[in-house]
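Margin note: ligand = zinc ion.
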Amino acid sequence: MLVLLAGDEMNTDGLDWWTQYSRYLQSPRWKLTRAVRLALSFHLCAFWWKFWRGKCSGPLQCHHKRYTHVGHEFPFHLFDLQVLCKTHHKDVKK
Ligand SMILES: [Zn+2]
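Resulting structure:
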């Protein structure tokens, strides 16, 4: 699953997938992808109706629903990502 090798800005030779993934999450490419995805969700958690009941907390995060297109989610696979607050991100990972 070394799809991250498609990333331009990284020299990823010989690194395991999770190391590549955590590097990718620091990259300008990911920052752009994340910013666009957050904008598409109007900066609201996917469980936005719970927000009104005070159930959302923490900064918004982009959850990978699938890892097939990691490294090149932008622009065609942005909905592989789900915008979640920290609390609900923890819930979906369970
Ligand atoms: Zn939430």
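The pocket of zinc ion is lined by residues 45, 47, 50, 56, 84-85, 87-88 (CB under 6 Å).
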